[in-house]
Each structure stands twice: as structure tokens, then as C-alpha cells.
């Protein structure tokens, strides 16, 4: 059994006033209806047009050929050992916020990359890896520690320049063995074909 509710004349008048203020107002439309999307994109806006499949295949074949040529010459063991030592320095540098540990960590990390490719580049990658390590000191020092020392630029530029001289002196020997010529030709042909079709 429900209990009777006692409404006064003031309650009734208040409710009627609220109904009058909202009655007759037009509701606001929040967004335009979404038009139906086309079922198929035009041929020139597809992500991988059929004309570029040949270019992508040539580039992929050239990259796989290069990886096959270099896989047996990589020094992964030396690179992994150096990277493991570098990661220990990085860990304590970031954990304890010690900028001084960032320097050997970055140099060892760059050296690990250079040692991995040393037999392919004739030692130039070791110099470039060291240059990369010094540049990493600058970037991480500014981003994570707020240190704005520019001293690592000088050894980085010098090491990079010596690496360019070393690789330039050995470039004719690397290309003469025809180890790199055919894969590089496939990659260049694929790039040219891809841009020409566009």
C-alpha cells in the first residue's frame, strides 16, 4: 500500500514553471552525420600500388643479399660482450643519477657497434662507433642529466673524420671484389623504379 503524497500548490506551480522554460526549445545537434565511406580507395591512394611491388621486391632482395654476404663476417661475440659491460654502466648511471658513469657506458656501447662491423669496414666502423659513443654522451647528458658540456664533440668529429679517410682508402678494394656490387645495384634499381612509377 502506497502512502499518499502531499503536494502543495507551490510545488505544482514550480513544476509547471520548469516545464514552460524548457518547452518549445529546439535541441542542438552535436555533430554532422558521418558520410558513408567509399568501399574502395582510388588506385593512386593505395598504400602499396601494384606498380611498386616490383620495386619493393628488388629492394628486399638486395637487402637480403647484403645480409647474407655480411652475416658470416660479423663479430657478434665481441659486440655483445662490450654491450653487456656498457649496460652495467648505464644501469648504475641512471639508477644513481651519476653523470660520470654515462661517459664509459656510451663509449663502450658505441664501441660494441663498431667492433661488430669491423671486419666488413676494415676498422672504420670502430672509429665511427667511438664517435657515436661520444655524441651519445652529449645527447643523454643534456636530456637526462641537464649537463651541457660540449667537449665530446671534438673527439667525435676527429674520430668520424679519420673513419671516413679509412673507408675511402679501402672503398676500391671493397667494390672490386664484386661482393657489394650486385646487391647494391638491386637496391638502387628498386629505388629508381619506385620513384619513377610515382
Largest sheet: none
One letter per element, helices H and strands E, the order comes to HHHHHHHH
Shape field: elongated
Radius of gyration: 33 Å
Count of individual helical segments: 8
Query: How does the helix and strand content classify structurally?
Result: mainly alpha
| Low-pLDDT residue intervals, each spanning 5 or more residues | none
- The number of distinct β-strands equals 0
What is the average per-residue confidence, as pLDDT, rounded to a whole number? 77
Q: Tell me the fraction of residues in β-strands, as a range.
A: under 5%
Helix content: over 70%
First CA to last CA: what distance?
81 Å
Question: What descriptive keywords fit this protein?
Answer:
single chain, 198 residues, mainly alpha, 8 helices, elongated
Describe this structure in words.
- There is one protein chain.
- The chain has helices at about 10-20, 55-70, 75-95, 100-115, 120, 125-145, 155-175, 180-195.
- It has 8 helices and no strands.
- It is mostly helical.
Brief account:
The protein has helices spanning 9-22, 53-71, 76-96, 99-116, 118-121, 124-145, 153-176, 181-197. Helix content is 70%, strand content 0%.
Write the topology of this structure.
Layout: H1 9-22, H2 53-71, H3 76-96, H4 99-116, H5 118-121, H6 124-145, H7 153-176, H8 181-197
Helix pairs in contact: 2-8, 3-4, 4-6, 6-7
Amino acid at each position: 500500500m502506497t502512502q499518499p503524497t502531499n503536494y502543495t500548490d507551490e510545488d505544482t506551480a514550480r513544476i509547471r514553471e520548469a516545464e514552460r522554460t524548457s518547452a518549445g526549445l529546439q535541441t542542438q545537434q552535436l555533430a554532422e552525420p558521418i558520410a558513408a565511406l567509399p568501399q574502395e580507395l582510388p588506385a593512386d591512394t593505395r598504400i602499396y600500388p601494384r606498380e611498386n611491388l616490383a620495386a619493393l621486391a628488388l629492394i628486399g632482395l638486395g637487402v637480403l643479399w647484403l645480409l647474407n654476404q655480411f652475416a658470416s663476417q660479423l663479430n657478434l661475440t665481441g659486440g655483445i660482450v662490450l654491450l653487456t659491460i656498457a649496460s652495467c654502466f648505464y644501469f648504475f648511471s641512471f639508477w644513481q643519477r651519476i653523470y660520470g658513469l654515462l661517459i664509459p657506458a656510451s663509449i663502450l656501447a658505441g664501441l660494441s657497434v663498431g667492433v661488430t662491423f669491423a671486419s666488413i669496414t676494415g676498422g672504420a666502423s670502430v672509429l665511427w662507433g667511438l664517435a657515436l659513443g661520444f655524441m651519445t654522451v652529449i645527447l643523454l647528458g643534456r636530456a637526462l642529466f641537464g649537463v651541457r658540456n660540449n667537449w665530446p664533440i671534438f673527439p667525435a668529429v676527429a674520430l668520424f673524420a679519420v673513419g671516413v679517410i679509412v673507408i675511402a682508402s679501402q672503398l676500391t678494394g671493397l667494390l672490386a671484389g664484386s661482393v657489394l656490387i650486385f646487391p647494391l645495384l638491386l637496391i638502387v634499381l628498386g629505388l629508381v623504379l619506385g620513384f619513377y612509377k610515382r
